[in-house]
Predict the 3D structure of the following.
Amino acid sequence: MTSKYHDIINLPRHVSTKRPPMTAINRAAQFSPFAALTGHDAAIKETARLTDQRVELDEYTKDILNHRLQILADSINEHPEMAITYFQPDAKKSGGAYVTATGRAKKIDIYERVVIMTDATVIPIDEIISIEGQIFEAILK
C-alpha cells in the first residue's frame, strides 16, 4: 500500500527564480510574538492604578478651614509659611490624590477661589482639607 503523497514526497523543494531566498532572521521574525491588542498593557496598568476618593468635610472642619483662610488673608503680606493639603482630581479616571504643598503663601484670589504660593503652585480653595503653619499656632493660643 502506498501513501497518498508517495508521488511528491521525494521531489526537490521549490526555489523561486524571481525572488531571493529569505534570511533565517527574517523567517524567524514572522513567527515571533506580537502585541495583537495595541495599548492593551497600558490600559490594564491605567485600570490598576489606584486613586483616592474625595473626602466630604463636616461643618466643624469647614469652619476651621474658613477661619484659617481668613487668618491667612489678613497676614498675606508677610508671606507666611504653611503646609496646605488638598485634593487633586485625576485627569484620566474618577478620584484623584491628596497632595501637600509646603511653602509661602503669596496671594488669595477670591474670584478664582485659589491660593497662590510663591513657587507658583495654585491650590483650589474648595479642594483644601487642611492648612497647617506656625501663624495659626501663634494666633490660636
Q: What stands out?
A: Helices lie at 24-30, 40-48, 59-74, 134-140. The CA atoms of residues 22 and 28 lie 10 Å apart. The longest helix spans residues 59-74.
